[in-house]
Structures are given as C-alpha cells and as structure tokens.
C-alpha cells in the first residue's frame, strides 16, 4: 500500500539535492518518519532525532523490517543505555539527549544528513539542536512537522516547505459534558472513560484509542475497562516492550489502547477508528525558578491531532470528554517558555561559545536565562562568558541531573560517592523503583533493618539488591536504576555494584546538605505541615518514612503540581532524610542576624539569631568585636532611644522635609532611611568599637544634605504637621496638582479647620480628611 508521503518524493529529492535545508509538513501516519530518512541516504549517513524513546525503537524496528535487514545493520537506534547500530548503519534513530552528547563529541561528523522529526512538539532539546545545527551549517538538514504552521520555521531556516496533506477520512465528533463550555477535568475520569468505551464498542468497529494525561491515569482506567470485551493496553514512556508491541501491531481482537501524548503524533497505531479524548495532558510550568508539572487542558492544536488518529484508514468517531465550546488555548507554548533553562544553558556552554551565541527560533525568556546562569555559575559549571568549565563539560554528558553529577564529583570519599551514585540512580528513573510496604509486619522489619528512618538508606539498599522482601519492587524500574549505577560507577572509576562499599549515613547526609544547601527544608510548624528553604515550600509525600514533626529534612526529589496562580504550586517531598537544627548549625547552614543590642558594664553585647527559611535555628549572646557588628548595634541603640535620645526622630523628620524640598523643586533624588543614614555616617566617622562613641556627639550625626538657610524657610512654608487648638493634623502635598490634604491625628475638635487657621498656602486646593470623610477647607 502506498503512503501519502510518496507523492512528494521527487520534490523532496530534488530540493535536498539542491539545498541544505528542507521543511516537510505532513500529517502523522503519512510515512514521513520512515521514508524521508531512506530517501536521504543517497547523500550519506542519516541521523533521525526523535523526541521520544518509544518512537526511536519502534521506528527503527519497522524501517529495518521494511529494508529487509536485521535491526542494527542498515537501520539502528540509540537511546539512553541502549543502542543497536554499527559503523555501516545508514540510518540511526536517536533521542535528543543522545544526539546532543554526540554533537559535543564531534559535532555529528559521522552523519551527512540530520533530520529533526516531530519538531512541532517544541521540546527544549529539539529547539537547542536546531539552533546548533543552524549555527554549524555542516549538515543537510530536514525538519518535519505534523502541523501546517511551518512558515515561521521555514523563514528561520531560510528553507523551502514541502507539504504532504495525506488522506483523512470523516470523523464525527461527540461531546460528553454537562454544558458546551465545560473544560476538561479529572473528576470521575475513570468512570467517564469507561462509559465512553462502552459507547464506542457499540457504535464503531476497529480499535479505540484513549488519550490520558499520564501513567497514573492510564493504570486507573485500565483497571476499570478490563471488564469490557476488548484487550486493554497501556501505552506510555517506560511501558514494557510487550505492551508496546501489542499496541503498535495490528491485532485480530478489538483493543482499547490507553495512551499519553506519545500516541498523538510520534507513533502510528493501526486500525484505530475511535478516539476518546480526555482533553488533559501533563505539561511543564515554571514556578519560583523551577520546572513543575501541571495537569492542564490541551490546546486546540493537540485536539486536532488527537481527532485525526481516528480517520487514517476509514471514517471514525471522536468522543470528547469536555464541552464543544470549551475555551482551549490555541497552541501549547514551547517548552523553553515554560520551564527551567538550566540544562539548556549548560548544554549551550558545552557545545558553543555560550547560550548568547545561539539564535533560537523563539527568543529565550531573559529571566529564565538569568536564573539558570546564576545557578550554574554558583556550581562552577560555566564561566562568566557562559562557556562550560572543565567541570561543566564533565557533568553535562552524564545521564543524570547536573546537580547530582556535581555532588558526586565533590564528595570527599569513594564510599560516599558510591552511595550517592546508587541513591541518584533511583531518583533518575522516571518510574517509581519501589514502594514502601503497607502491612505492619514488613514495616516493623523495615524499621529494624533501617534504623535511621530515612528514605535514603532504603533507596541505596534497594539498588544494591537488599530489602527486596520488605518493599514492593518495580522490576523494570529497578533494572534501569541499576543501569544508571553501573554507568556512573564506570564513569567515576568506582567498583561495580556487587562490590559496593559500606558508608556512614550521617556523613552522607551532612555532605549532601553542605554541597547543595537548597536541598535542606526546615519545619515551619504550620497547619499545612510545610517545610521551607527560604525559596519554596514542600509537604511530605505519603511515600516517605519521615515524620511531620522532624525539625528539618534533606529533600532529594520532589513532585510539583502547578497551581492556578503564577506562584502557586503544591510540591511533595518524595525522597527524604530527617535532620536536626544542631546538624544544620554544624555544617554552617543558616544566616546569623543581629536581633538586639544592649550595654552592660560598659561592654556592648549583641543577641544573635541564626535563621534558615525564616525559622530560628539558634539564639546566642556575645560581646561585639567587629566594626560591622558594632555599628549595627549602635544604630539599634540610637533607633530605640537608648543612645542620643530623640536623635532618630530628628533625623527622620529632616529626611522627610528634604525629600519634600526635592519634590517641590522637581528633583528626582532618592534619600536613605534613618537606619541607612546612621550606618553610613558611623562608617564615615570611623567607629570601630563601643568606646569610640564617646568621641562623637549628636551634631556629628545630623542629616544636613540641604543647607539650613535654604531648608528652614521651606519648612516654615510647608510644614508636615500642623496644630490648632484641639486639633493636630498631618499634611500631604501634591505640588504638581496644586493640592494639599490635611489628615486628622488627634484632638477633640469635630469640624474642619478654616483657611485662616492654616499657613498661607496660596494657589492650593485644600481638603481635610477624618476617617472616611473628606471635606473642602474654606
């Protein structure tokens, strides 16, 4: 059977031969991902970059079968920890992470043609690869998209667009919602999916494809629909090879395939005649400088893609679990605009002269770049120009979060380094490697075997093959964690997993906390049972061994759900270990603040509080010896009228009048606070100890920015306070608007003042305010 993409083969071949770049716009199922790479091999080896691992492996297997060769010979693939290809392979499908590492190694010199497939998904790593390839200008470049808004892409690349429309049979839409504008939602999702599947089994032939936001929803719906007369299959990143094969190959029996967005554009599933669209997806957001995961309604572009899956081979139906006129966004924003850019900035620094040297198809958010740059500079991963340091170049290729790599490289002993590798290996697996037991008997045994009560000791033991009978293991996830461990142990020249060294649990905790202080959260003792690190708040997950009354916790993994507001997010602390305030003080975490000062027996004393995350860790009293502490304490004593009684009020009034003077003369000059002025003045006077205060008097601390001969007449003309019998008022001036407002302070007088009782404010409109009542002064 011919594929729709075959109609553009002559145009594609001619364009790629004559130009270095071509944009191909073709619907999912048209054959672009399988045929374009084969056509391009006339120019040399082809690298096809696929956003998803499952697409890499399935496409490579399909194309190798069509080419009548074994997988890994003519056609191969490369994903994390796995690859099947050879030097003779003409087409290699790879994930963006693998492609980026190859780019760092040799700028993809082994390939003549690079194809970025499914670019419309707009992942950050695909955007980066496109910018790198555009800058390098060393490959023939093919960029494909399943959407028709490709002109922006063509303009960016100065490329020709080739469109292959494909064939789409009629698809009837039905909306299951209480009212036309009802948005997608998660309430009773399993039951609504079950009802829609029942309807689909009656009203259409063929297989049913259900779009759900994630693995958890898929598993919940699987248990619900398994009673229906069809094979139920879950399809998501990390699902078993058996489930993949069952979903991607035609089958005699009817199937209900419950899938994430992986089935939206990346994969072609045969024989689908009905799509059930939950209208939901998991989408990243930027909250408080970090990437969090939110449950969101899809955009109209995704809704269109999902519907199209039902009309590939024959007429179909699409059942939407939301209203016909639900106000969906037009398109999902690119990932670079809704997530942390730390990885992108580090990757750019490894491959180029820094992120600023690259021209992206969409400008990077300046604030996100700034936050990422600051974080990477702090960890010594990039230099002032944004170029990766030697440490940064070592960290980025590692298949784990760069902070994890930084910690491993900085730990003081090989035993702790091994423990950290095994711990981070568990944290780097997308699926949950193990779950804590529910039964009391196993919980008791677990607590006996692991007395520290932390998740860290259990996670490390699980990777090393211990505790398997005490926790519920996910075999595939454990295998992947052990692959991480083996790879990292080899990279850092450490013994293999079966020769793992024992380690000191407390030493590991303290070193982790001292290397990345932001991982430490202190108990806020509030009703939400939250822990805070001064930047964000977490609550303990149900899947942790830590008690809510712990003084502090070391949090190594979080799961965040975006809230409705810009700063709202509920973040669950997943892998944790308890810490005490005493341990935090031992490693120097916290900010010591001078809280109060007093003089005793002619010695200046200070009361200091050490804060972390707005919570007090300790309080100490000690004599003040440094000039900085001495000046801060003297300022406190002046402000509370222990020293130079009344001086602080005089200075505050003088600053206020000076500011009013500048306002009158339209001068935009910023003045210090009383506290700031006193700090500055005492520094200028050279105060270093309490004894030095005897060498100065009040006149040395007067605020006199404007000469008195100029300021005093102005004060007489425009006082900030005015009193008449039984009435005191404050005065507010609006010189531009020629308005003055008097505000009641105290006094028994009930009526407003008269103009003759006030200064001669010629040309001003005067009003008097008492509480909420405002009247004109006449």
UniProtKB/TrEMBL annotation:
Keyword Hydrolase: yes
Entry keywords, A to Z: ATP-binding, Helicase, Hydrolase, Nucleotide-binding
Helicase ATP-binding domain location: 13-166
Pfam families for this protein: DEAD, Helicase_C
Domain of life: Bacteria
GO molecular function, one term: hydrolase activity
Keyword Hydrolase among record annotations: yes
InterPro entries: DEAD/DEAH_box_helicase_dom, Helicase_ATP-bd, Helicase_C-like, P-loop_NTPase
SMART domains with a match to the protein in the record: DEXDc (SM00487), HELICc (SM00490)
SUPFAM superfamilies in UniProt: P-loop containing nucleoside triphosphate hydrolases (SSF52540)
Residue ranges of domain Helicase C-terminal in the record: 188-352
Name of the protein in question: ATP-dependent helicase
Species annotation: Pseudoalteromonas peptidolytica F12-50-A1
